[in-house]
Amino acid sequence: MERARRSLSIGPGERAGSCAATSTCWGSSTGDRWCRPYFAEGIDHLRRRGRAFDLIFVGPPYGKGLADSALRLLGDGRLLAPEAIVTSEVRKGTEIALSYGKLQCVDRRTYGDNTLFFHRLEEGIGWQGVGDGVEC
User: Fold this and answer.
1) What tens digit of pLDDT does each residue of 97-130 get?
2) CATH number of domain containing 74
3) In whole angstroms, what is the distance from residue 15 CA to residue 37 CA?
4) How far is residue 96's CA from residue 5's CA, in Å, rounded to a whole number?
5) What's the number of domains the chain is made of?
6) Does 131 fall in a domain?
7) What was the pLDDT predicted at 104?
8) 86: three-class secondary structure by DSSP
9) Is residue 42 exposed (0-12), middle (13-18) or buried (19+ Cβ within 10 Å)?
10) Distance (Å, rounded) from C-alpha 5 to C-alpha 65?
11) Residue 134 falls within a domain, yes or no?
12) Is residue 130 one of the residues assigned to a domain?
């Protein structure tokens, strides 16, 4: 698999425990890195700059609706490259929607106490995963 040229991470911020515990950070294969303390603000900022990402990871904190909120914001597809993959990590047993706007769930995998959901744009549907995933 080719390495992602631009990736986006939505999860715990550098100041965990404060009101800025969830952040949006992006990076590229050239080592560029940028963070915003509130993920919705970060996503809006990146939309205005016309950024598109190959890989987006939505991580913990668990039980706060972050995956659902982030996927709703990403559902318009404006931050996604055509073949992008959005991976959301949630606590095992947490259900998230199979579609968010243009994003469709293509795979779900459980590892221990965590479940990973994989979403892609409708236009890029199809999954070339490794291992035995469970269809959404």
Assistant:
1) 999 999 999 999 999 999 999 999 987 555 555 4
2) 3.40.50.150
3) 9
4) 27
5) 1
6) no
7) 93
8) strand
9) buried
10) 28
11) no
12) no
Q: How many CB atoms lie within 10 A of CB 97?
A: 16
Q: Are strands 103-111 and 99-100 parallel, antiparallel or unpaired?
A: antiparallel
| Residue 22 in domain | yes
HSE (CB half, 13 Å, CA atoms) of 8?
28
**Above 60 in pLDDT, residue 68?**
yes
Residues 103 and 75: beta-carbon distance below 8 Å: yes
Predicted TM-score (pTM) of the model is 0.75
Residues 6 or more apart whose Cβ sits within 8 Å of residue 66? 10, 11, 22, 39, 58, 59, 60
Q: In the numeric block, which tokens belong to residue 132? A: 């035995």
How far is residue 94's CA from residue 22's CA, in Å, rounded to a whole number? 19
Range of the domain at 76: 6-124
Cβ contact 113:99 at 8 Å:
no
